[in-house]
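Methods — Computational structure assignment.
A single polypeptide chain was analysed. Its primary sequence is given first, followed by the predicted tertiary structure written as structure tokens.
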Amino acid sequence: MLGLSQQQMADLIGVTYQQAHKYERGINRISAGRLHEIALVLGVPVGYFFEGLESQRSPELSARQRMCLELARNFTAIQNEKHQEALSQMARALAAEA
């Protein structure tokens, strides 16, 4: 819409023509930082690239899934590696009983 060639766009965002072509064709993913840079060059907000996408709500988690997520978060918050290992061994032992 701005009348830029792929080469001009590539130069503006600091990538090769080939890389810009791969971005355009969807062959390579665009990182968040690169997307921000592209938005700046084009003079649009980053949200411009997401207009028209329907916002889909994540499916509700079951009580078991919530418990697993909470367990994982709490486990990673344990600073002491020996405590993490002890908890891991306890979980393996309890799982073997089932």
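Note: The two ends are 62 Å apart (CA to CA).
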